[in-house]
Amino acid sequence: MQTKIFLDENEMPKKWYNIQADLLTPLDPPLNPSTGEPIRPEDLSAIFPMELIKQEVTQKKWVPIPEEVLDVYKLWRPTPLYRAYRLEKALKTPAKIYYNWEGVSPPGSHKPNTAVAQAYYNMKEGIERISTETGAGQWGSALAFATSIFGLKCTVYMVRASYEQKPYRRIMMETWGAECFPSPTDRTEAGKMIRKKFPNTTGSLGIAISEAVEDAAKYENTNYSLGSVLNHVLLHQTIQGLECKKQFEIIDEYPDVIYGCVGGGSNFSGVFLPFMGDKLRGEHPDLQVVSCEPTACPTLTKGLYTYDFGDTAMLTPLLKMHTLGHDFIPPPIHAGGLRYHGDAPILCKLTKEGYMDAVAYHQNEVFKAAITFARTEGFLIAPETAHCVKATIDEALRCKETGEEKTILFANSGHGHFDLAAYDAYHEGKLVDYEYPAELIEKSLKALKNKT
Question: What distance in Å separates the CA atoms of residue 108 and residue 12, rounded to the nearest whole number?
């Protein structure tokens, strides 16, 4: 029985896949909030390098990966595809369970797939420093790693709840030469405004984005970098799904259903988009794709599909997405990477049009699934990933009842080595099962409707 399916380095994809070329209807463009008109490249040039702006809007199906980026990718790519034999046996399911494992990267997650590319393009255009936000710390760690590779400085605004929950992520960033601050801070006008309005706030990704964007806009030598949501970020992440497709071809398999955790949507989109292209082209019309999110931040399952700001201080363009409102501040669950008020426009469009589905879970049930995974497959995974492990286990148990021999793939986005406090809280029965109150969601969405 083959547990791991590997690719050689020379089999690594040399191009990223752009789903926009296969969409049956065009993506709604981001809007300039001042004019209500589609955003222009020059509107973004103050904080993004031109090459990334081009990638954001390109309709070309394939975008070449620069050799310098491929050379860095070789530190950990191609990543392995695992067959979860031990989990299957424990569940007594006829289903076949596979997962791609992104925990082998230096920062321990999928995030450097785009961090390396973004740092490279900024370096090529003479940028000296990059500012960014981070939720649980995976993105901040990845960008700190990438900027150290290309000789750039890095400033990270980390959501305060995660900054306090996960000090080792901060140490990791600082080891790679980055500076990291708990957001909201007194370093920016956006941070000062939020701290004055909500003195005891645990922060949010929307707030941290506001601070990072403001920081970048102040200095000519500084650009802003985002770890999820935007089209070019999802583009870079498709190297995951492209590798998976090659690995499934080696064993003559194809998934019936794909699960992944979703906060902004970068990891899951990176895995499923190359497969979704097959579905859109009619090659695998029955493929199921399911996003897994927390009940504490249920954007896809309860949010409004409309234009909204990507940040709290309303500094970003308006994006068409499922959103809980840009001023939404989620409870401090341990899956910090899933605490974002919106989602990637591409993922949201595919969800709205019925090509994929979404489910939401509580903290305790996803950690229970993570424990099951650790005690069978051995890997201690991130709380974010635990959401799609929960969905995978549920599907495998359904197959046990029906006798279906489905092939299941889930996106294993990274390890949970800096989340031991969360695992400890679960073992001690101290995890709170946050479910954001329906009346507060309704209030937030009503306010958003009035604004839009």
Answer: 19
Two structure tokens written together for 350: 């595919």
Q: How far apart are CA 20 and CA 230, in angstroms?
A: 12
Half-sphere exposure of 409 (CA within 13 A, CB side): 24
**Which residue type does 116 have?**
V
Listed by start position, the domains of the chain span 21-65+110-230, 73-108+232-451
CA distance 337 to 174: 20
Q: Kind of pairing, strands 81-83 and 4-5? A: antiparallel
Q: Tabulate helix, strand, coil % of the chain (nearest 5).
A: 45, 15, 40
Alpha-carbon gap, residue 418 to 423, rounded angstroms: 10
**What is the average pLDDT across 346-369?**
97
Q: What are phi and psi of 210, to 5 degrees?
A: -55, -45
The reply to whether domains 21-65+110-230 and 73-108+232-451 share a CATH topology is yes
Class in CATH terms, 73-108+232-451: alpha beta
Tens-digit pLDDT profile for residues 125-163: 999 999 999 987 899 999 999 999 999 999 999 999 889
Q: What is the DSSP letter of 381?
A: B
Structure tokens at 163: 């900054």
CA distance 309 to 305: 12
179 neighbors 158 (Cβ within 8 angstroms): no
CB 132 within 8 A of CB 155: yes
Q: How confident is the model over 408-433, as pLDDT tens digits?
A: 999 999 999 999 999 999 999 999 88
CB of 258 within 8 A of CB of 288?
yes
Structure tokens at 299: 């954007």
What distance in Å separates the CA atoms of residue 347 and residue 70, rounded to the nearest whole number? 26
C-alpha distances out from residue 84 to 335, 353, 402, Å: 23, 32, 20
Residue with tokens 């980390």: 158
State the CATH architecture for 21-65+110-230.
3-Layer(aba) Sandwich (3.40)
The residue behind tokens 């501040």 is 329
pLDDT at 452: 57
| Interval 308-353: pLDDT, tens | 998 877 778 899 999 999 888 888 777 778 888 999 999 999 999 9
Q: Are 169 and 418 in contact (CB under 8 A)?
A: yes
